């Protein structure tokens, strides 16, 4: 018989292969197929519609004896491949643990560890209600109940027909827990992790969301920092588990928030499969199979976990939904948050998007009634939000009234007010966090008097300083260029080029506060996940007084001892050449401010800035998300940026800069020719990181009212890209998050 197969290789379209007529294959099942001169992993899609011309090759082997993709997952990945303009076979492959996507490691499906004992984890009234019509499953549960709730699988096999299969089904429904021989003592799902009594706001949120279990609805859970969103997630999941369902929880970066995974484990024990980038391939395969065979029913993981094989999915949760790390920036360039919503819809379950600073996309969806807004406006125990004070650096600079000698001195890292606040904090035995989001590339060019950074007249994004032609500023959207002006375009003040980083802050601290115990957290200081966990744990235990770092310190950490948060230079984010620069800056500042005053003592936040009147900074002062969002939405509407349009970025890179640029222009011409009415085309322009690892990078940005026209055009551009010269790579990025 003839099969339609998606091959795990970077090629477009599907292929036809032949297999024995009596081969029993399931949709999505893995195959080994000959492909060109090598072998590849393929995925069975269904019977081929028609015989192709030429010789049809035979599959070599069918793997696993069954498909690894449930029907909902298969639909999800088909949708993703289509939407993100990426080959289906590659998309399927990347949705599996790496070991299962390789042809040279077969057979790689690691058997789940042998099950030794099983135990009931639901009270009789729950499993009786859940198993109404499945008599054999109910019989097995009754047998266990009679035996005091648990039994060895060997005994069950003797007492109950088909015990292993039934046990798997019951585990998938969340009625049984399975314990491997080496698994130690059976975990009770509620071992440890005493659940606190929900506050009134929490109770309302839990009630609203659980009322929609069993159907699709998306909730935007907008809760201020420390309002207890996690507890809301845990309660909803408990409810889902009681009904025999599983849960998918996406979190931005597990390594950065080990506490969070710990809270899920404490509440649900071995029911939780944790999926993050720190796992070995083997561990990943193992967690994957634990979910697939129902041993675990709750997947907590980073973006790729959106493809986790959660059994009987009953709820999908995305924590910190605004976080850019949900976007995959290579290969299948998906946004896990968006796919999570789609997956919830496929499964007819609620989807909860939680954040203290929702993305403007989600906010717009809530305003238009597509998402339902649920709010937690207060911190737990009515603890106050920290007070936020803005420190105007340009004023400080004016009063210092001295010509800067060299660029390094242009920014006083620890200004007088911040120094004083640090001194007080240290004297009272409390802890402080100092935040400076200094990213590697692009040094910041801004006016020392008014704080404005030079912006593109057409695109309203910050211009980037290039050394070419004696110093020029360029727009990374439309390629507008202008010689670097002598003074600030708006006030003629002096332009500063600032390149401060966290290391300098650490040195400065050591000089001023030699007795303070300091820890640093950034990509340079932290090499491994273990090291990161160690630093976070040490700070949590009070082994250091000050934690200095990049955005890594801003994440959801819960350090009750922290009463002071200092932001060294808030303007850094605003200088990024990205239309979301302002939104990102606000989110980060609000997030890092939220680390202060989570314990009994109130918190204080000092934000140093050359431009404290910028909305992204000013609105942090009053914790005024609504005002920030309203203003920013208005600006986006005027400029026609998302969420008032959809975007497709085409990214081109090559060793030969001229050739890459030529390809960019060819794609732009093709796009212009086929553009739909109302579509906007920007570029080609150099990417913000114009050269990386010896390759020149260009980009093209297409904006349209909805995704439909972009996809239609995108598909035609994919064909044009196929004819790009060797060595030039073209990637398509739907709903790009960074430029
Ligand atoms: P968020 O994720 O909204 O920032 P968390 O879920 O981390 O907030 O909760 C903040 C703190 O409050 C945590 O230490 C958590 O254990 C605690 N907490 C949450 N809900 C309750 C509650 N109902 N009663 C007491 N403490 C709670
Ligand atoms: Zn521009």
TrEMBL record:
Q: Which GO terms describe its biological process?
A: DNA recombination; DNA replication initiation; DNA replication, synthesis of primer; double-strand break repair
Task: Please verify whether the record's keywords include Transmembrane.
Answer: no
Give the family this protein belongs to, as stated in its UniProt record: Belongs to the helicase family. PriA subfamily.
What is the protein's given name? Replication restart protein PriA
Entry cofactor note text? Binds 2 zinc ions per subunit.
The UniProt record gives the binding positions of Zn(2+) 1 as 447, 450, 488, 491
Q: Which residues cross the membrane?
A: none
Q: Which Pfam families match?
A: DEAD, Helicase_C, PriA_3primeBD, PriA_C, Zn_ribbon_PriA
Residues binding Zn(2+) 2: 456, 459, 475, 478
EC annotation from Swiss-Prot or TrEMBL: 5.6.2.4
Q: Which organism is it from?
A: Vulgatibacter incomptus
Q: How does it associate, per the subunit comment? A: Component of the replication restart primosome.
Cofactor(s) recorded for this entry are:
Zn(2+)
Look at the named UniProt entry and state the broad enzyme category this protein falls under.
isomerase
Give the GO molecular function terms.
3'-5' DNA helicase activity; ATP binding; ATP hydrolysis activity; DNA binding; zinc ion binding
